[in-house]
Design a protein that fits this description.
heterodimer; A: alpha+beta; 3 strands; about 55% helix; B: mainly alpha; 4 helices
Chain lengths: ~100, ~140
């Protein structure tokens, strides 16, 4: 559950889930919606995959992501979107660099 | 594989049967009233339904023929998961707090409505919503 909260705490990852709610999308299609580099988006996708919130299927060179939210996780996502927890972070943060910085006092 | 797939369901069934047996024992020996035993069993049934429906949208199946079919399957699973989870919680809530003569028909009506909504939406997604001229099955 900790991984789910960590994944939902970031606005970019929440936006990814919002987009995947509408329909499954390829990694390229998702990246078009964010002004960040592909490695950064890839790190976000990894966090979502580790939390088991998305399903990734590779077909050739294309990775298609599908949403994989339980009803409770879906409700948590809606709650997080409404009340914006974690929204003090920038909309498109690099999870790799954020992790290397460690906790702030 | 089989244990992974059915282990949780078997554990839930054993827990459910043990709870029913314990309630029956308590009811027969006068520790609790018969109404209380009925209510508790029905609350467990409702919560079990909610727990199962909660993970319904998470059961992602293999690839479908097209992206359109994937989208429809995803929408049907989400609507089904939400409606059955809410119905399960409503079932549990009704049996916990409503008067017994009202709880029984009301809970059945709620669950039946959710089932009709789930199946109706799935049928709509895979038949009526399909755009003409796009041969994409599920």
């Amino acid at each position: 559950m900790n991984r789910v909260f960590k994944a939902l705490a970031d606005p970019t990852r929440r936006k990814v889930l919002e987009l995947l709610r509408v329909r499954p999308m390829t990694a390229g299609e998702l990246c078009e919606h964010f002004p960040v580099s592909k490695p950064t988006m890839s790190a976000h996708f990894n966090v979502l995959r580790e939390a088991d919130l998305v399903d990734a299927r590779k077909q050739g060179t294309t990775i298609t992501y599908r949403i994989k939210l339980s009803v409770l996780e879906d409700a948590l996502l809606g709650f997080a979107q409404t009340f914006g927890f974690g929204s003090d972070a920038q909309p498109a943060t690099d999870p790799a660099s954020a992790a290397s910085k460690g906790p702030t006092p | 594989m089989i244990v992974k797939r059915f282990g949780g369901a078997i554990a839930l069934a054993v827990t459910f049967l043990a709870a029913v047996a314990a309630l029956r024992y308590a009811s027969v020996h006068g520790f609790i009233g018969e109404d209380v035993a009925t209510r508790v069993v029905q609350v467990i049934v409702g919560l079990g339904l909610a727990a199962y429906a909660n993970v319904m949208p998470k059961n992602v199946r293999g690839p479908r023929r097209s992206a359109e079919a994937e989208t429809r399957a995803q929408a049907a699973q989400r609507v089904g998961g939400w409606s059955m989870t809410l119905a399960g919680l409503a079932h549990a809530g009704l049996w916990a707090f409503a008067p017994l003569p009202f709880a029984s028909p009301a809970s059945m009506a709620v669950v039946a409505s959710a089932l009709v909504l789930t199946l109706g939406y799935a049928v709509w997604c895979f038949t009526l919503r399909r755009r003409p001229g796009r041969p994409d099955g599920a």
